[in-house]
Design a protein that fits this description.
There is one protein chain. The chain has twelve helices and no strands.
């Protein structure tokens, strides 16, 4: 009972923080200026951004399906696609932002068991997305050092370096663990399976780069649609940082924090607060539309499908 009370209190606190941040941001800006950005955006631009992010989510479901098959989970891709969109719906409408991930773990493991490896496929799906995002950001600030000031540019470069070292060093880590702790090595054996399949690993990384580029391109399209004149390389550099900040679990699914991050980073390039705030809201509106597709899938009973069905 106490655990339920703490959980509810935590959820109420997150909702309160999000509401407070949005109210604070709205009080600081000219609301007519913010709304003017919505009026300025052509519906065709919003629809194009929606389709780009939709394609990105489809590619992400293929990535998850590929990871699941690497760990010997059965099932056809359309089933995973349905589960993925249902997970998106719960990710947005549950306070923690990871509720949908827990549902995906449940969908994958309810018949096959092996919950730990099911969790690893979902975490891996997120992790590869973060890896691609940070590497793209590091590439952008390396090519254009003027995009972001320190310490942000340095953070992207150091993070990408650590990622590359980790990716290349994992096989050596596996050998060291197997020699020093043979019992532990047997338990961790499955976690290194992807590194023994380099073609599949490169395929997953390739998908990750493609879908992240689509997502950032969609935000750049929305920005251009409301008159923000910045190179697309800036979006590649700043959006990884916005995404990381949004992951901080102190608000309701990053609402308020995401918009504040847009205002801050775009302000570094001289963009007024109103269009930057409006862009954050427009991006969220596209995410909301995609998540509602997951709600339709859930209402249609997609979550009741079995991965064993052929």
């Amino acid at each position: 009972m106490r655990e339920d009370t703490r959980r509810r209190a935590g959820n109420i606190l997150r909702i309160g923080i999000s509401a407070g941040l949005l109210i604070w941001l709205l009080c600081r800006f000219d609301l007519r200026g913010v709304w003017g950005n919505f009026e300025a955006l052509k519906i065709s631009a919003w629809a194009a951004a929606f389709m780009m992010l939709l394609l990105a989510q489809v590619l992400s479901s293929i990535r998850w399906w590929t990871l699941a098959h690497a760990f010997s989970f059965p099932g056809r891709w359309p089933t995973y696609l349905g589960f993925y969109f249902v997970g998106m719906f719960f990710n947005l409408f549950l306070p923690t932002g990871i509720g949908g991930d827990l549902f995906k773990v449940h969908f994958l493991s309810r018949e096959e068991g092996r919950r730990f490896f099911a969790l690893f496929t979902v975490v891996g799906d997120r992790l590869f997305g973060l890896i691609a995002m940070l590497l793209l950001g590091a590439g952008a600030v390396t090519i254009r050092p003027d995009l972001l000031p320190e310490p942000f540019a340095g953070f992207l470069k150091v993070s990408s370096l650590l990622i590359l070292v980790s990716l290349t060093g994992l096989p050596m880590l596996q050998k060291a663990v197997s020699r020093l702790w043979p019992r532990l090595s047997r338990h961790l054996e499955g976690l290194f399976i992807l590194w023994r399949q380099p073609r599949r690993l490169l395929y997953v990384l390739g998908l990750s780069f493609c879908l992240q580029a689509l997502g950032m391109g969609a935000v750049a399209l929305l920005g251009a649609g409301i008159g923000i004149r910045l190179p697309i390389s800036f979006y590649f550099a700043s959006l990884p940082l916005v995404g990381i900040i949004t992951l901080i679990p102190v608000s309701f699914n990053g609402i308020g924090i995401r918009e504040g991050a847009f205002v801050y980073f775009f302000g570094l390039k001289g963009i007024a607060a109103e269009p930057a705030f409006g862009l954050g809201l427009l991006f969220f509106s596209v995410q909301l539309g995609l998540s509602l597709l997951g709600g339709v899938a859930y209402a249609g009973g997609v979550h009741r499908r079995s991965i064993l069905h052929k």
